Amino acid sequence: MRVAMIGTGYVGLVSGACFSDFGHDVVCVDKDASKIERLEQNIMPIYEPGLDALVEKNVKAGRLAFTTDLAKAVPGADAVFIAVGTPSRRGDGHADLSYVYAAAEEIAAAITTYTVVVTKSTVPVGTGAEVEAIIQKVRPDLKPGVHFSVASNPEFLREGAAIDDFKRPDRVVVGAQDDKARETMKELYRPLYINETPIVFTNRVTSELIKYAANAFLATKITFINEMADLCEKVGANVQQVAKGIGLDGRIGSKFLHAGPGYGGSCFPKDTLALVRTAQQHESPVRIVEQVVEINADRKKAMINRVRAMAGGDLSGKTIAVLGLTFKPNTDDMRDSPSLDLVPALIDAGATVRAHDPEGMEEAKKLLPDALVYCDGPYQAMEGADIAVILTEWTNYRALDLDRVKSLLSAPKIVDLRNVYDPAQMERDGFEYSSIGRPTTS
Ligand SMILES: NC(=O)c1ccc[n+]([C@@H]2O[C@H](COP(=O)([O-])OP(=O)(O)OC[C@H]3O[C@@H](n4cnc5c(N)ncnc54)[C@H](O)[C@@H]3O)[C@@H](O)[C@H]2O)c1
User: Fold this and answer.
1) Those residues with Cβ within 8 angstroms of residue 187's Cβ, 6 or more apart along the chain or in another chain
2) Which residues are annotated as a binding site for substrate?
3) Which pLDDT tens digit goes with each residue over 86-142?
4) Ligand 1 in contact with 173 (CB < 6 A)?
5) Residue finishing a domain among 201, 221, 236
6) Which of 154, 242, 280, 419 is the most exposed place for a label (fewest CB within 10 A)?
7) Ligand 1 lined by 85 (C-beta under 6 Å)
């Protein structure tokens, strides 16, 4: 089948590369010419494990190509995916759909044969209908269900494990209004059909809502365990054991029960907020999600208090080593990362901040204050620092040489916001150590 992928970011590039690996002919389109130039030289514009090899293999096989020219990629395509960004609209938190609608207009002008236009971007309920209306406005000659269809196919991949998630998903969700679209989508996902991946066919609005409901549920689960962690600290309980004790219950499940500094990333913050706004608009508020949004934002802001407490109440003149800047390991994505709250707050409080991140420092430079000192490795960041803060659980921070850490820090103090180390072990090793929802040593 022929596929055009509009938007070649985290989702578009991974989806495009995976569809080509399924055997389809895929053209990935982006209006960012520098991205396309780099991809043509097999230089990945994002960090995602395994992506460069997958792209190279499929480009060599002639199944994957890149262009800035949407008008050339769309004609003759069986499916055109919209995978552009849907960030929070400034001011009100609604999803900004301007990129989606602009892409829909361009696609409409370029359709030549029956095409399914698929929203892969995370879009609020009703967006598919709006995309259909835009296409009809631009091309009154095209009839929905006859010359084109608009379907919804939200993406559930996780950055850092994106290829595996795309190829071995828990499920695929397709929202379609007619059989022609359903048949095209079935054919596209045939390799997963053979693997017996559950494919949930539903109507467009339901599919659109499934994506937001999934993200809001996961964000709620994280927020729940974060609040349990705070309570654990007050009563002397251990949140990791609470998580294990509840997670073994099949109705609860053990995933997404890791307490930490608050969720970040390109999806949960904006999607929870967008769901809150959609629900308010329809006068059916999701009050639990409203609370989650508020609690999480407060939590990210409050993380500085843990570093301040370790510093004895005053951060001015202190040097803090921050290990990890991205919102999670194995990505270079900095969007809504907890570091965007913590690092500026530390600097405002008068601290010098020395940071390291294996993949995120280029992106971080665009978003964090110039005063932040970037270091070549975790040990360089800790040289002469008063406190080390573990903010992202990259593998190479999980097995630090603790004797070396001790010799580098001015005093052996670690604030571990990801619960990477064992408090008892840290006590034995002579560290002053605080983590989330577990006993603090001093
Ligand atoms: N990143 C994730 O983990 C993830 C997971 C699931 C769903 N999503 C959703 O997928 C969508 C895309 O997210 P992303 O992280 O890939 O975004 P991104 O910002 O990495 O990529 C979007 C790309 O679209 C391009 N673009 C915008 N308008 C265009 C146009 N008219 N023509 C061609 N290219 C255009 C941009 O230049 C950019 O490269 C969002 O709705 C997001 O919520 C993201």
Assistant:
1) 1, 78
2) 156-159, 211, 256-260, 264, 328, 429
3) 999 988 999 999 999 999 999 999 999 999 999 999 999 999 999 999 999 999 999
4) no
5) 201
6) 280
7) yes
